[in-house]
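From: lab user (bench 3)
To: helpdesk
Subject: output format question, protein + S-adenosylmethionine

Hello, I'm new to running complex predictions and I'm not sure whether the block I got back is the full result or only part of it. Here's what I submitted:
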Amino acid sequence: MTAPDAPRGVDVDKPSAARIYDWYLGGTQNWAVDREFGRRVEKVWPLIRPMSRENRAFMNRVVRAALDAGIRQFVDLGSGVPTAGNVHEIVRDQLPARVVYVDYEPVAAAHSRVILEGEDATEWAGIVERDIRDPEAIFADEITQELIDWSQPVCLLMITVLHFLGPGDRPDELVAAYRDQLAPGSWLAVTHGTCRDDAPPERAAEVRAFVDAYRDTSNPAYLRSDEEILPFFGGWPLLEPGMSALPDWRPDEAVSEFAAEVRPFAWGAVARKPS
Ligand SMILES: C[S@@+](CC[C@H](N)C(=O)[O-])C[C@H]1O[C@@H](n2cnc3c(N)ncnc32)[C@H](O)[C@@H]1O
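Helpdesk reply: Thanks, we reran it on our side. This is the complete output you should expect:
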């Protein structure tokens, strides 16, 4: 299988974080330069691909559960390159519904545009090319305004993105700004990289080496503990089963062979805004 032509203006000579992530997920929107980089990361942290897939599988289960609960609007912050199992692909079977992707990486945004146009989805799905650290700009963006009615419940997804925010980005205040924007009945889904006490020491060392390797890049990553992740939900009631390792959040039949290895490193939860 070959990668499709690169969207205009997209550089395929340099690795792109969004396309590398696409490769972790088994997508097709990546080039040799991305795969080469990805393989190097995989040597440092062999769990990177299973972790990425667990995150995506969690997101898929959350979107399906939100649809079952009657939610028809989705905002996916830090959406990446929309590879297999995107929000709009799941939602497509249950239209009318609306999807807004948000990513600040031009490569991710360009690929998203091409995919949404190619799939004739632009009437009900769009990409906002902005920094999630500027919620007001995201709310004011014309694509968001056209697609999202904030007086109605929204499923807000923050999947594998908050670890890119450092303490100086004031992630607590930032997530609170998004919570305030949501109508009662909305859902907030968050996953986050962590390193729990029960992690096997050699695996914990790998994840720490991975984080260290990214420390001086333009995308430093931060692991957070339960105590740091839980406040993102602002005290809203968590949907069953509460905060859990990703493979354990409402697992479906397709539990991955890597679930046990991934458990200590990827946690998440979904909360519902009370009336
Ligand atoms: C690891 S990928 C996750 C993609 C997707 N949420 C998933 O779980 O499959 C993280 C994405 O977040 C984006 N991102 C990181 N920081 C961001 C920021 N401050 N504003 C917007 N996007 C951001 C990156 O460009 C990248 O595409």
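A quick orientation on your result: Residues 17-272 form a domain with the Rossmann fold fold (CATH 3.40.50.150). Let us know if anything else is unclear.
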